[in-house]
Amino acid sequence: MPPLRLKTLLPLFLGLIGVQACSGKSNLAIEGDLPSSGTAGTEVSPTCTGVRDPGRVTVHRLNRSEYNNTVRDLLGDTTGPARDFPSDDSGYGFDNIADVLSIGPLLFEKYQAAAEQLINTAWDRDIASRTNVLRICDPNADAACGRQILTRFARRAWRRPPASDEIDRYLTFISVSTQEGDAREVGVKLALQAMMTSPHFIYRIEVDPDPQSLVAHALSDHELAARLSYFLWSSMPDGELAARADDSSLHNPTVLEQQVGRMLRDPKASALQENFAGQWLYARAVDNIRPDSRLFPTFDAALASAMRQETQMFFQSLLTENRSVQDLLDADYTFLNDRLADHYGMPRVGSSALRRVSTAGTRRGGVLSQGGVLATTSQPNRTSPVKRGKWVLAQLLCAPPPPPPPGVPPLSDGGGQTGSLRQQLEAHRSNPVCASCHSVMDPIGFGLENFDAIGRWRDHDTDGSAIDASGALPGGTTFNGAKELAVALKADPRLTSCIVRQLLTYAIGRGPTPADACAMQEMTRKFDAAADRLPDLFAIVATSDVFTQRRGEPRASP
Amino acid sequence: MKKWQLSRRTVLRGAGAALALPFLEQMWPSRADADPAPPPRRFLGLYVPCGMYMQKFTPPDVGSAYTLTPILQPLAAYRNDFLVLTGLANRPAQPDGPGDHASGTASCFTATHPYRTEGSDIRNGISIDQAIANQVGQYTRFPSLQLGTYQGADVGGCDGGYSCAYINNVSWASPTTPLSKEIEPQSLFDRLTGDLQLSEAEARKRRHYQQSVLDVVREDSNRLQAKLGSTDNRKLDEYLTSVREIERRIQSQAPACAIGTRPNPPVDIRDRTRLMLDLIVVAFQCDLTRVVTFMLENGGSNYAFDFLGLSGGHHEYSHHGTSQLNLDALQAIDTWEMQQLAYFLGRMKAVQEPGGTLLDNSVVLMTTEISDGDAHNHTNMPVIVAGKGRGAISPGRHVRFASETPVANLFISLAAACGVNLTTFGDNGTGPCPSLT
User: Which chain A residue lies closest to B183 (C-alpha atoms)?
Assistant: First the structure.
């Protein structure tokens, strides 16, 4: 790895420190990155020359999407049993952060109940339809059958070959059932349930040779396979990936890259549009917003669903068509069904399923003009240039402003004050406390004012005044409207480093730390060198040391 | 405390449609018993988001003849059953920088300063409901229940660099373990009823099987712990704690208490809230649990109460900027919240137990994460305490505490009213607060 010079690092650190410059408080710099007891970003200045610290990831509980996808691939069950689980708390913008994913009695109980239901259903289906997902032999007829079933299942459910003494312990369920006067298969089913309740299933576990050592080491091939499959598929490894772990070739970067390519082409990679893009671009949140039904009577679940799909399918198209991340902002196509086309005032596509349509010559094109982004960054009854500006800063540039200090006068909901929203916000910014951040957020959001709170085009604000969509980026670049904002954002170097940061966070399931700065910078450099093509970034992340290595931690954790 | 036995003859009608809760006296052991166990004491922590419109909440006068304010009007029928408490402060809730909703929600029942982090190093304190459950939870099938109306599927950061774990959970089993909540009335109903339908023999076999599963997975966990580092071990500790709780439940005797009919899925928040409150009453009544927390939406909720004729979101209104329009909206929302409390108190009061009503034997705490939505202050917190804790509390008054009286001291008093003695609590609880009796 070539040593990096300090000069190349400088912009990075200026960027990091500048993240919350508007707060004027250095101890708030870099949301969540530095311990809040830390004083300044300069303290952690890495040199990027010495030994890199790949960090460590806590044992990773399957979140709801991962559970659903895993049981789909493990048992062929597509009922989504985790729908009924308590929600997964998120951190760093994603709900797959190992440190945040806890377990309590409620969730444990749900795991237990789901395991029982899933195993019984799959077993019965095997009998009824003569398949052999689980029941590869008849444990009632054949004494050796139990071990075969359990060994095969554990290999898949635990994402590694089980030790034979582990299987021995699970075989004791057979005597438990026969003691109770039940058939042997009852014991086998109990053992299968227990395997799905075991920490080996519920958690993705990575074992350090020495859990107290800070020396980096490569993950085992099976651990790496699991990281990769949960990154790209939010699910367990398939047979091919497991085979590459079994033959110990996965840690070879060439093999790893081949697997990334193969897995991205697999339909299971749609997990990325749902879970990564769904959270990164807020598409997932459309299902939860509740615009005022009197002001926006056309907004309903079907429209919300179309909006979510539009952004997700759009993201997926960047991947499948090997497009650059800049296309995210100004591609000349999108995905619409009739409902969404009507909503946008565009020609119908003749289908309730979304279809790819050209946006050339229209007001749409790129994520900034997609209903999902626009609606989730609005208030229930009006647009919010503040939220939209914040979305651009936080999600696309990784430079989120801090929340407002207490005691500041907010906007009314439009009924009490006069003037356009822009005028109200301008008055808001006359307060110097507010101005430092709002002078950054609002002018970005103003560029999207031609889209109302549910993403429809409009030429006039609610008070009848003509929309003024002129705005400016922090660097001083000015623009008018969404299209020009997109052009300005495309040129912002923070765009590529930000998606690196977002994707790495999602990929490893932990927040980036200052120790990751060098690695992220190197990934950004490689990404830019690859013309910022999105599929390449997945390979760059997956082959990075941060992804393929780990270390232990000191005995007494802080 | 003795285990409280329900009579096997008793059949309660539960949560579904028609809710009739008469004849509770029948549940009690025969009056001829030499030493009848007193009825148990129950605790409900009811959380509502975004503070309170204090000017329309705070009574101008104190004592038992205080004036009911507009927001308290829905509670008029129960004015002798609750205390209005003002002047209490939750200083530990003060965030490091912004993030009052997250840190205020996390601290709401812990009175502990939450550590500001997006993910790694989540650290809060044990919540008061869990401190109580640690003592009384052993007597019931569920040591405690955590309920809510909204899961919290928010995207992006939650609040000012605080993990969403802080804003979505008020119950904390330990400084590092928030307890996630159940929001589906049907799922709660299914958990409460459990295997009550099974025959004695079926139930025994099922217990044996479940126990054998727990034995094996506990062994897996123990073996893993020997190989993992300290943070990983903390995660597996959460797992093992859960295993132990389920184990205890399996071994506990199912109460002879029919829960009633399975509720239909709720249509909206009104429905969901009512069904949850109904099930809490039943869970208390059947002694399935003695400790519950219920979050009526999550911290900083921006719920749009369209059925109140409001077009904006709760959080947006709460930053009222003294605009009358916003304040009117807040008053409507806060009043609606009090209507829910009034409904619950009515249900609790309708249940007769020896020596009083179910409400008399309970402690109901209602509070929120901040005081005024605009100021985001953690002083002069709006607090209501209902019930008598079997005589430990004398309701029917407005008590104004000296400012800066720690809410943690109230928690110590409420724990005592539930039979749990704590000498300290949270960051600044040093002893019981005065004036509750």
Answer: A86
